[in-house]
Design goal:
Structural class: alpha+beta
Radius of gyration: 21 Å
Bound molecules: 1-deoxymannojirimycin
Strand order of the largest sheet: 3-4-5
CATH class of the largest domain: Mainly Alpha
CATH topology of the largest domain: Glycosyltransferase
Distance between the termini: 50 Å
Largest sheet: 3 strands, antiparallel
Number of helices: 19
C-alpha cells in the first residue's frame, strides 16, 4: 500500500473506531456535564476502582455484596460512550474482560443486577461490538436465569451467582417484571428464546393476576402468584413493570406485549390518575375495589411522563411533568416520597435520581418546547448547588436541610448524567432518539438492531 493510501486508510480507521456520537465541540452546558462526569469518574477511579460504589465524603468505596461486582463502571459505560470518552470506555472494556469473574458464591438481587449489570454489559456489547463483552453478558445472564425457575415463572428476589440457589419468595412488581429488555436482547444475540421467554412468563403471570378493574397489586408470591399487597400504583416497586411492557413492545415488536399494555393503561387512568389542586397526580388504589387508598407518591414516579410521551399521550405527559416540576421547586430537589393531599414530605432523601430529568428529556424531544430544556438546566444547577462535593456528587439525606449523605449511586452515571447530557447536546449531538430504547437504567438499545425479521424466531414469539 502506498503511503498516501495508508494515510487515508488510517484516517478512515480512526473515524470508524470513534464513538459515532463523539463531537468536537459542544455547547457550554453539554460540555459542563461532560466535565463533571469526568471529574466524578476520575474520583471513582482514584478511590473506588474495582468496587461497586464511590463514597464521596469519605473518599472510599462500598460493595453491594461480600465481593465486588464492578457495578459503577458497568453502569457508567454507555454514558461515557455517548459522551465520546473513548479512553475511559476502552479501560472499562479491558477491565471487564481481564478481571471480572462472576463465578462468585454470593446471593445477588435478581432485579437490581439485571438492570445494572446485565443491561450494562449488553449495551456495552451493542455499542462496542466487542464479542468478549457478549461472552461476559451471556455468562452473567445464565447465572441469574435460575431465579425464574419458580412455579409461576416470577423470579425469586435472590439468586446465587455460583450455585444457582434461590431465595426470597415475595417480590414487588418491578422485581417481578423488569426483564423483558435485557432478556430479550440476550435471546436475540444468542438466538435462544429461553431468556426472553422467562421474562415474558413472569410478566404474564403478573398480568393474569390483574383484577377485573385491570389493576394489579404491588407485592406477589413467586410460587403461587397470590397477592401479598392489593395496593395498585405506578410508584417505586411497580414503575418499570409498565415501562418494560411498552418499551419491549417497541424494541422487539411482540404484539402480545401491546395487548398487555392496552389492557393495563385504562385501569391506571381510571383509578390511579387524580386531579388534585389543579394538578395531575397518580395515587394509590385498592386493586379490587378501585377505591383510593393513599396519596403518597415517590420520586421514581416522575418516569411516567416519559412513558406517556413515548406512547403518544403528550398532553398527560406535559400535565404530569408540570406537577413533578412543582414538587421539585418546593425545595430545589425532590423528596423520595411525598403526600400530595397532606402536602407533606414523607421521606426527605434525594439520591441523585434521574426520573424527572429523563421525562424532561423525552418531552423536549417530542415537543421541542424549550420549557423542558430549561427544566433540565434548572435541575442540573440545583444538583450542582446541593449535591456537588470536592471531587464528585453525593446523595442528600434531607432536602429540607440539604445535609449531604455519602454515596454516589451507580445510576447517577448511567442515567442522571446521560439524560442531562443528551438534553443539552440535543442540537449538536444528533443522537437518534427515535432509533433507541433506553432500559430502565438508561442503557440504550438500537431498535433497528433488534426489531428485525429474525426477532420472532430468536425470541420465540
Ligand atoms: C434506577 O435504578 C432505575 O431506573 C430503577 O428502575 C428505578 N429507579 C432507579 C433510580 O432512581
Amino acid at each position: 500500500m502506498g503511503s498516501l493510501k495508508k494515510g487515508i486508510f488510517a484516517l478512515m480507521l480512526f473515524f470508524c473506531i470513534q464513538s459515532p456520537f463523539a463531537q468536537v465541540a459542544y455547547n457550554e452546558q453539554a460540555q459542563d456535564v461532560i466535565n463533571e462526569t469526568v471529574r466524578s469518574w476520575n474520583s471513582y477511579k482514584k478511590y473506588a476502582w474495582g468496587h461497586d460504589v464511590y463514597l464521596p465524603l469519605t473518599h472510599s468505596f462500598s460493595d453491594w455484596y461480600s465481593e465486588p461486582l464492578y457495578i459503577s463502571p458497568i453502569d457508567a459505560y454507555s454514558t461515557l460512550y455517548l459522551m465520546g470518552l473513548q479512553d475511559e470506555t476502552a479501560e472499562i472494556e479491558r477491565y471487564v474482560i481481564d478481571s471480572l469473574n462472576f463465578n462468585k458464591n454470593i446471593f445477588v438481587k435478581t432485579f437490581e443486577v439485571n438492570i445494572r449489570i446485565l443491561g450494562g454489559l449488553l449495551s456495552m456489547y451493542d455499542l462496542s461490538q466487542n464479542p468478549q463483552i457478549l461472552e461476559k453478558a451471556i455468562d452473567f445472564g445464565n447465572r441469574i436465569l435460575p431465579a425464574f425457575n419458580t412455579l409461576t415463572g416470577i423470579p425469586t428476589y435472590w439468586v446465587n451467582l455460583q450455585t444457582g440457589e434461590t431465595k426470597g419468595d415475595t417480590v414487588n412488581i418491578a422485581e417481578a417484571g423488569t426483564y423483558l429488555i435485557e432478556m430479550g436482547v440476550l435471546s436475540y444475540y444468542t438466538k435462544d428464546p429461553k431468556y426472553y421467554q422467562a421474562a415474558k412468563k413472569a410478566v404474564k403471570a403478573v398480568h393474569y393476576a390483574s383484577s377485573s378493574l385491570g389493576l394489579i397489586g404491588d407485592v406477589i408470591q413467586v410460587q403461587n402468584g397470590k397477592w401479598i399487597s392489593f395496593q395498585s400504583h405506578i410508584c417505586a416497586g411497580v414503575d418499570s413493570y409498565y415501562e418494560y411492557i411498552y418499551k419491549a413492545y417497541l424494541l422487539f415488536g411482540d404484539p402480545e406485549l401491546k395487548i398487555i399494555w392496552d389492557n393495563s393503561i385504562p385501569g391506571i387512568q381510571k383509578y390511579l390518575a387524580d386531579i388534585y389542586d389543579n394538578k395531575l397526580w397518580f395515587g394509590r388504589a385498592h386493586m379490587y375495589t378501585g377505591e383510593k387508598t393513599s396519596s403518597v407518591i415517590t420520586l421514581y414516579d416522575a418516569f411516567f411522563p416519559a412513558l406517556l410521551a413515548l406512547s403518544g399521550n403528550i398532553s398527560d405527559a406535559r400535565f404530569l411533568q408540570k406537577t413533578w416540576n412543582g414538587v421539585w421547586d418546593m425545595y430545589g430537589l425532590e423528596p423520595m416520597s411525598y403526600d400530595y393531599k397532606k402536602k407533606e414530605v414523607k421521606y426527605p432523601v434525594y439520591d441523585l435520581n434521574p426520573e424527572i430529568m429523563e421525562s424532561a428529556y423525552y418531552l423536549y424531544h417530542f415537543t421541542k418546547d424549550t420549557l423542558y430544556y430549561n427544566m433540565n438546566v434548572k435541575y442540573w444547577n440545583n444538583i450542582k448547588k446541593y449535591c456537588r462535593t470536592e471531587d464528585a456528587f453525593t446523595a442528600i439525606e434531607n432536602i429540607k436541610t440539604m445535609k449531604q449523605g455519602n454515596e454516589m449511586a451507580t445510576y447517577f452515571f448511567a442515567e442522571t448524567l446521560k439524560y442531562l447530557f443528551l438534553t443539552f447536546s440535543y442540537h449538536e449531538n444528533q443522537f437518534p432518539f427515535d432509533d433507541y430504547i433506553f432500559s430502565t437504567e438508561a442503557h440504550p438499545f438500537k431498535r433497528s438492531h433488534f426489531n428485525t425479521p429474525e426477532t420472532p424466531t430468536y425470541l420465540g414469539f
